[in-house]
Write a structure and sequence with these properties.
By secondary structure, the chain is mostly helical. It has one domain. 64% of the residues lie in helices and 0% in strands. It is built from four helices and no strands. Helix 2 packs antiparallel against helix 3 and helix 2 runs parallel beside helix 4. The longest helix is centred in the first third of the chain and has 22 residues. The chain starts with 18 loop residues before the first helix and ends with a helix.
């Protein structure tokens, strides 16, 4: 889990004061919603050992890097990230750096394609 801190304006204590901070706040809210959804599904990875959770996490990224459709994989990824969060551990992103970069490039290409069609 990446650690971000949001700075707030002194004049407006509850309002982030830059676009980046609004994005970070939105991402944190989404992360909490994903965590809530994972817990509502019964914490499906709760019985895994830390080593088993790491194997699952890496496998998901390997599949994301190759998959033509990844909606169900994203749910599984959010579940694994949620389990790490509940254990107060950081997911092993360093183990999936290449796969994550490949996945981001693929998503970026899809977005560019959609933008060109507008």
């Amino acid at each position: 889990m990446m650690g971000f801190q949001i700075a707030f304006d002194d004049d407006e204590p509850d309002v982030p004061h830059s676009t980046d901070e609004v994005f970070i706040a939105d991402e944190d809210t989404k992360g909490m919603k994903d965590l809530d959804a994972y817990m509502a599904r019964g914490r499906v990875h709760g019985d895994l050992s830390n080593d088993q959770l790491q194997i699952l996490f890496v496998r998901i990224f390997h599949e994301l890097a190759r998959a033509s459709s990844f909606e169900s994989l994203l749910t599984e990824l959010h579940d694994a990230e949620g389990e790490y969060r509940l254990r107060h551990l950081d997911p092993p992103y360093a183990l999936v750096k290449d796969e994550a970069e490949n996945f981001i490039k693929r998503v970026s290409n899809v977005v560019k394609s959609i933008d060109r069609q507008r």
